[in-house]
TrEMBL record:
The chain crosses the membrane at residues 12-31, 87-107. It is a multi-pass membrane protein. GO terms for cellular component: bicellular tight junction; plasma membrane. Belongs to the claudin family. This is CLD23 protein. Signal peptide: none annotated. Pfam families: PMP22_Claudin (PF00822). It is found in: Cell junction, Tight junction; Cell membrane. Keywords: Cell junction, Cell membrane, Membrane, Tight junction, Transmembrane, Transmembrane helix. GO terms for molecular function: structural molecule activity. InterPro entries: Claudin, PMP22/EMP/MP20/Claudin.
Amino acid sequence: HLPDMRTPTAMIVGLVLCPCGILLAFTGTLAPNWRQVSLIPDQPVDLILEQGIWDICREQQSSHDRRCGQADELGYFEQVAVRVARGLMPTSLVLTLLGLVVAALGVRCWQKEPRHLLA
């Protein structure tokens, strides 16, 4: 009689949700619109700046003309929060991927009775 070796539900749910988290973190890291700025002095009223942590896009609402790669005239990239996000978001992606690999290996080697020599 072999022991019941079913993988616990929590492990399966974690392995399903982890890639979802990676995808969302990746999207958030690359998204150009962390912040939208409008009503900028000496600029057209319908101008919107979409500021991400890597790029700034400029959009005219009236024509829907959108141009990315704009110069940082307002000092946005020099703000502490943006510099911290530039470090933490990629770090989050790397650590989440590492966690997924470790969890996948853990599920693959999971047993009811732990092997203390491997732990």
